[in-house]
Amino acid sequence: MLAVLMITWRETIEASLIVGILLTYLAKIGQTKQFRYVYYGVSWAVLASFIFAGLTTYVDLFVAGVGKEIFDAVVLFVAVVVLTHMVVWMHHNAREIRGEIQKKADLAISSHHLWALAILAFAGVFREGVETVLFLWGLVLQAGGAVSFSSQVVGGVLGVLFGVAMTWLFFKGFGHLDLRLFFRVSGVLLLFIAAGMLAASVGKLIAADLLPPLLNPLWDSSRLLDERGLIGSIVAGLLGYRSRPSLMEVISYGMYFPVVVLWLRLNRHDLAE
Amino acid sequence: MKKAIFGLLLIIFLLAGVLLAQADDRMEIKLTIKNNRFVPDEIRVQAGTTIELAITNADPTVEEFESFSLNREKLIPAGKTVTIFLPKLQRGTYEFMGEFHSETARGRVIVE
């Protein structure tokens, strides 16, 4: 039961990380009424996970070939693009944000930014959702049918609940930071999360045999910190840590930062006009 | 304009990566999942071989091939065959398992 609990706990933390960031960020800029966009994304993702889980027994192309790896790579890449846009947006609005430290800023968010939030929430949950649903369903079947509650099923569901609770607690802590500090910290954190997702996307393309690993693994720090463990999975989710990354993934991760900094610098000149 | 340049750079980078990906001849190895076990459960290869695993799930329930050391994870629905590309491996033993039946579905790739 414990092993199953750890698995679903870990996957839920990864999935709910993005959701936590989005909700905390919206709350900080006084836009709690836009929470529903995030909830839309999450509920569609949960629904889509169940649908896809039901379909995988029939969808050959998606499963047998490298369709799923490519799909995951694209979903992750979309998340990277959206996260980067968020960081750039926060950077541009830094002046307005700083000018309103005492009361919550009422920044106008255009409608396509709101849909970007829904898409991001969807991407974050759906990726892990299909596997988690299949895993839990497999456990239910093993236990002998839909109405059985073996200790494994209980463990699996508890893992999901713990994952959600832990992410919630973590972001509650963030909510207590003052506005300026929050935006500075979250901006940096988002960059690391995006870099980690970019490396993960590249990892999927390597698994699909579309990119070469170059050197695999570049190092093995699994004895120091294993991303399958509790702390490891948080560090993996927030900082993109991997204990056995390939050279290609490390390069992608490293290259993300200068590219974004360059992008921010270039865009600053636009604003100065 | 800047977005176009970034997009182009990205495409060039990806294309370079794809072209660099060696078109090695991969050794095809077949595995079957039967009664929640891998058959065979041990694969021996020489270091430097690139492997293409063809895993057939002969059980009536879905399984997920997972290996931390090989860094691969893939769902295998009942009755289906999936392909998993393994990277060039260094000498050592790499464990893998069927996550949904992890007590019995266990195997290893031994690279010598």
* Overall mean pLDDT of chain B: 85
Main beta sheet strand tally, sense and closure of chain A: none
User: Helix-strand pattern of chain B, N to C?
Assistant: HEEEEEEEEE
State the shape of chain A: globular
Walk me through the structure:
The complex is a heterodimer of chains A (273) and B (112). With 273 residues, chain A is an all-alpha fold. Chain A has a single domain (2-201), classed as Growth Hormone, Chain: A (Up-down Bundle), CATH 1.20.1250. Helices cover 75% and strands 0% of the residues of chain A. Chain A has helices at 2-28, 35-55, 60-64, 67-92, 94-98, 111-142, 151-175, 179-207, 230-239, 247-272. In chain A, helix 1 runs parallel beside helix 7, helix 1 (2-28) packs parallel to helix 9 and helix 4 runs antiparallel to helix 8 (179-207). The longest helix of chain A has 32 residues, at 111-142. Chain B is an alpha+beta fold. Chain B has one helix at residues 2-20, and strands at residues 27-34, 37-39, 42-45, 51-57, 63-67, 72-76, 81-85, 92-98, 106-111. A 5-stranded mixed sheet of chain B has the order 3-9-8-5-6, with no helix packed on it. The longest helix of chain B has 19 residues, at 2-20. The model of chain B has no long low-confidence stretch (mean pLDDT 85). The chains are: A mainly alpha (273), B alpha+beta (112). The interface between A and B is large, with 39 and 32 residues.
Summarize the structure.
The complex is a heterodimer of chains A (273) and B (112). Chain A is mostly helical and 273 residues long.
List the helices and strands and how they pair.
The complex is a heterodimer of chains A (273) and B (112).
Chain A: H1 2-28, H2 35-55, H3 60-64, H4 67-92, H5 94-98, H6 111-142, H7 151-175, H8 179-207, H9 230-239, H10 247-272
Chain B: H1 2-20, E1 27-34, E2 37-39, E3 42-45, E4 51-57, E5 63-67, E6 72-76, E7 81-85, E8 92-98, E9 106-111
Parallel strand pairs in B: 1-4, 3-9
Antiparallel strand pairs in B: 1-2, 4-7, 5-6, 5-8, 8-9
